[in-house]
Amino acid sequence: MSQSHHPDLSLRVGRRSFLKMAALGATFGATGGFAAAEGIRLATAEEIKDPYPGSKKVKTICSICSAGCGIIAEVHNGVWVRQEPAHDHPISEGSHCCRGADQIDLVKSKQRIKYPMKKENGKWHRLSWEQAVNEIGDKMLKIRQENGADAAMFLGSAKFNNQQSYYFSKFAAMWGTNNIDHVARI
Q1: Domain that holds residue 159
Q2: Backbone angles phi, psi at 149, to 5 degrees
Q3: Contact call for residues 95 and 70 (beta carbons, < 8 A)
Q4: pLDDT tens-place string over residues 35-45
Q5: To 5 degrees, how large is the angle CA 66–CA 115–CA 69?
Q6: How many structural domains are present in the chain?
């Protein structure tokens, strides 16, 4: 019998597919062990229906880029706990991109810096906003004075709207350079 007609050959699995299936099987095996632990109980029907009783749903806008997609943020005791796309939003029409779907994790990240920090002698310490702006401004002016305006490069943000982009380009022009680009091209 030739190989092309052998019934078992149609069941062959490629290396990549095998690795995906093995990883999936290991994941189910590991999580199954956790589910069987005595310290875990099944959620009640009420908990499944409403895991955050008394929470508010707040319509907001995704801040990842300037498209302005709609998000329904669920807030419980002042904390953003879940999100879903705003189905009635005219731009996103009920969908999220992969970055917007992860918006809540950006807000809740423990790595998120919430105020200016400066590293001195190997240790980070907090600065006031005024001190941070003044130090950065003084360093920028020194660089321009010593090396000229073209020593700086201005990179715009995907979060800029049209007006912000206009002001940003005007700032670069007033600085004295045409070195302006967009971070999406890096």
Answers
A1: 150-186
A2: -65, -30
A3: no
A4: 555 677 888 88
A5: 20
A6: 3
